[in-house]
TrEMBL record:
GO molecular function annotations of the record: catalytic activity; metal ion binding
Domain of life where this protein originates: Bacteria
Keyword entries, A-Z: Carbohydrate metabolism, Magnesium, Metal-binding
Cofactor(s) listed: Mg(2+)
Record protein name field: FCP1 homology domain-containing protein
Family membership: Belongs to the HAD-like hydrolase superfamily. CbbY/CbbZ/Gph/YieH family.
Record-linked PANTHER family: 6-PHOSPHOGLUCONATE PHOSPHATASE (PTHR46193), HEXITOL PHOSPHATASE B (PTHR46193:SF18)
Organism: Candidatus Gottesmanbacteria bacterium RIFCSPLOWO2_01_FULL_43_11b
SUPFAM superfamilies reported for this sequence: HAD-like (SSF56784)
Amino acid sequence: MANYNSTILDTLIPKIKAVIFDMDGVLVDSESQHFRAHKMAIEENGGTLTKEFYSTHGISRDPLLFYADCFPDKKNNKEFLSCVSRRKLQIYRQLQEKEGILSVKPAISLVKFLYGKHIPLADGTAVYKNEAMKNLTTLGVSNFFRVIVTLDDVGGKRKPAPDIYLKVSQLLKVPPNRCLVIEDSENGVKAAAAAGMPVVVVPNAFTKTHNFTGVIIVSSFEQIKKTFSI
C-alpha cells in the first residue's frame, strides 16, 4: 500500500487539466446503507454477511457476482440471485428515504473549491443515470460537473473495467494522463489505472483494508485541496 507523499502529489497536480470524482464512498456517504441493505437481503434469503466480506467482495462489484460468492451453492441460479438483488435495491431505497442521501462533506467542499478555480470536473460512477442525478441533485452539486458518466453510458460495464473513465476523458476532451481520479475503492483504482489516469485514494471505513498499489493515498480531502491551493 502506498502512503501519502506530498512531493509526489505536488509534482502531479501541475500536469492535471481535469478532476474526476467517483460517487459512492467519495461524494455520497452510502457504503453503510449499501452494506446494511445487502446484509438484510442476504439474511432474508438464508445467508450471512460480515462487514469484512462485504469490504473485500462486495464494493464496486456486479451484484450478481457478489451474491454468487455469498451463496456458492446457488451461484448458477440467476433467478435466485436476481431476486436477492432486487430485494437489496428495495431495502436500500427505503434506507435512503428514511435517512436521506448523506454527503461526504469534505469531498463536496473540494468539488466547490475546484469549481471555483475553473478546473473542469466530472463524475464517473458505477450506478445508473437516474440514481446518479438524484444523488448529485440532492447534494446540490450536479451543476458543478461538466460531464457525468454512468453505467447507462457504457453499456453497464462496471469498474474495474476502464470504460467509465475513458468515456469521461472522451467527453471532456482531456487526455487520460491529464485527468486526476479521486477514488475510494480497489476496483475504482484498477479502472482508473487501466484508463491510464493518475489516482488519489481517500479510503473510508469500508475500503481502508483494500490493496491500493502504485497510487497516492491521502487521509483527507483537505490534503488534496491544499495541494491545489499552491
